[in-house]
Design brief:
The protein has about 120 residues and is α+β, with helices and mostly antiparallel strands. The protein contains three helices and seven strands, in the order E-E-E-E-H-E-H-E-E-H. A hairpin with a 5-residue loop joins strand 6 and strand 7.
């Protein structure tokens, strides 16, 4: 089990999380080409979760930085990418981004994670 920072890109279809019971009928729309960053204590399990959510061929998942110090790095990424973060239906900023490519996102994460070795 490895913890770390990962990225995701939605490839083919738009997605909404309106099916989730805790959200109700409303959900945030994520469009084809949207990218996301996140943290997890189990990268393998997280990738499997994305497979269930989006389908086998509708996303790219890449582990970018393997580390136990995921919370501190994620917070720095959020600050750096604040202007790109999508605002969800509940008014909260998400880890899904707009106006940035997957390769640009990876570069930002690499610069931040290099501070942590």
């Amino acid at each position: 089990m490895e913890s770390g920072i990962y990225v995701v890109e939605l490839l083919k279809e738009n997605y909404t999380n309106a099916h989730e019971k805790r959200i109700g009928r409303q959900g945030s729309l994520v469009k084809k080409g949207s990218v996301k960053f996140g943290k997890t204590t189990d990268l393998s399990r997280r990738e499997k979760d994305y497979r269930k959510t989006f389908g086998e061929d509708n996303f790219i998942f890449k582990a970018i930085f393997i580390t136990k110090d995921i919370s501190k790095i994620e917070e720095e990424i959020k600050v750096e990418l604040n202007q790109h973060r999508i605002i969800g239906v509940r008014g909260r900023k998400l880890e899904w981004l707009t106006g940035i490519t997957l390769s640009e996102l990876i570069k930002v994460i690499q610069v931040i994670s290099n501070k942590y070795g």
